[in-house]
Design goal:
17% of the residues are buried. This protein has one domain. The strands form 2 sheets. Strands 5-1-7-6 form a 4-stranded antiparallel β-sheet, with no helix packed on it. The chain is elongated, with a radius of gyration of 29 Å. It has 186 residues and is mostly beta strands. This is Spore coat protein E.
């Protein structure tokens, strides 16, 4: 359809759509100080991840917490214990796409954890009193808002591409027994 086609008209429709997207992978380091001087690290894991997404001036902030658990031995590997610490985090996820014409007052922000926070390394610190833990995480974010889209309007509608016109008038008798079956199930 060309601009010269006088039958072609455009109409703007306001709809909700994904107007922004972003994704970020990161690692962070935390220092956990157990109640006993650790001899060796037996295991480390991250649990109870909770987060929410908030629109910021330069992207989306994912704000949350998770618990780090360190299973360690102490007293020359004669006893074990688990050190637990709750950690807060803020991850600024930049947007690689943002529709500049979205209606900011209708913005909804969503985040999804692509890689759940996970411990990738745990070592006893140089002073021997604490454990240094490296955690990886990845978040994808979306901004959904109202925006305008333009559509072509053809007066009288578009012809059926297969050249078939269906007229469903008068053919409802075949489906009368369906209503009876549905009534029986209810």
């Amino acid at each position: 359809m060309t601009r010269g086609n006088k039958q072609l008209r455009c109409r703007e429709i306001i709809t909700k759509a994904v107007c922004g997207k972003g994704r970020k992978f990161s690692t962070s380091t935390h220092t956990i100080t157990p109640p006993h001087r650790p001899t060796s690290i037996l295991g480390a894991w991250v649990i109870n991840t909770k987060y929410e997404a908030v629109k910021s001036s330069n992207g989306v902030e994912v704000i949350g917490t998770y618990d780090i658990n360190i299973w360690y031995s102490y007293n020359n590997n004669s006893q074990t214990d688990v050190a637990k610490e709750s950690v807060q985090f803020v991850e600024n996820v930049p947007l690689y796409y943002l529709d500049p014409k979205h209606r900011a007052s209708t913005t909804e922000v969503f985040a999804e954890s692509i890689t759940e926070p996970n411990c990738i390394e745990a070592n006893i610190s140089a002073n021997g009193n604490s454990v240094v833990v490296r955690v990886e995480r990845e978040f994808a974010v979306e901004i959904i808002a109202e925006t305008k889209v333009s559509v072509a309007v053809v007066p009288g509608g578009c012809p059926d591409p297969d050249g078939k016109d269906f007229d469903y008038e008068g053919e409802t008798e075949e489906f009368d027994d369906l209503d009876e079956l549905l009534d029986e199930e209810i």
